[in-house]
Amino acid sequence: MNLVIDIGNSFTHFAVYKNGKKLYSLKRKSTSKSEIIKILSLVKNNYKLEQIGIASVSNKTEKVIYILCKKLFKLTPLTINYKCNLPIKVNVKSPATLGADRICNAVFGYTYFKGKDNVLIVDIGTANTFDIVTKNEGFIGGIIAPGIMTSSYALNINTARLPLLEYKKLSKNAPLIGKNTFEAMQSGLVNYMKFAIEGIVQSISKQFRGKLSIILTGGSTNLLLKKVNFKYIHIENTVLEGINVILNYQKLHINLNYEDNN
């Protein structure tokens, strides 16, 4: 069994997998040390782990979880980066700058289609990322743009009177033309994101002459499901799935090396 941990900008996700099946998952916005201990202790008492993988955008939280995992499980977590044994090639400039979340997304996209398709993974969250992994070249790069709540905070901070619209106040059915400030902001956040994403997807698809499979994932995808005008597969959290794929690949890699040496 694998414990996989996705430390994002807004939430931290914990999940336990057995092979490719998710047995347990939990999402938390606040992760104090005491709460992390509580979550990890629950996992320890209910599951016999073999491996732990962490993908993180927060060094501080990652360090706390890494140390606690070593102490509680007597296992050294794998922190995901471009130096890990990966089932894909990473063909980008300055790979050391790549976020672990983007690596996990690319790995999952490639393995989900068994390396037979060119894949675009659209991850809608605090940041919107568009990552491309091809069947021949591997992970070739992508696009990073502000997410919907990042845009909402920016409008509130950089204007004198515009309020902060929380995520729960947004609706996928926001009117295109707002009749008041609230509706106008809703449209600007939700519909602007829809049209921007559609435009980016369309432009990337043209480069591949339409031979591109698309995965839609991330915390803000509920605002887009059945709303965007392109075909896609919806996966709730490809970062978690990608961490699990990478952990299983480490195990396979070790076994293959052992067989080669014997």
Question: How much beta, percentage-wise?
Answer: 15-25%
The H-and-E topology, N to C, reads as: EEEHEHEHEEEHHEEH
Helix/strand class: alpha/beta
Q: Return the average pLDDT rounded to an integer.
A: 91
Distance between the amino and carboxyl termini = 26 Å
Radius of gyration: 20 Å
SS element count, helices: 6
Tell me, briefly, the overall form: globular
Major sheet: arrangement of strands: 3-2-1-4-5
Total strands: the figure is: 10
Q: Give the low-confidence spans.
A: 256-262
Largest sheet: 5 strands, mixed
- Helix fraction by DSSP (H/I, runs of at least 4): 25-40%
Compact overview of the structure:
It is built from six helices and ten strands. By secondary structure, the chain is an alpha/beta fold.
Structure description:
The protein has 262 residues and is of the alpha/beta class. The protein is 40% helix and 23% strand. It has 6 helices and 10 strands, in the order E-E-E-H-E-H-E-H-E-E-E-H-H-E-E-H. The strands form 2 sheets. A 5-stranded mixed β-sheet has the order 3-2-1-4-5, sandwiched between helices. Helix 2 links the parallel strand 4 and strand 5. Helix 3 (100-112) crosses helix 6 (238-261). The protein is globular. Residues 256-262 have low confidence and may be disordered.
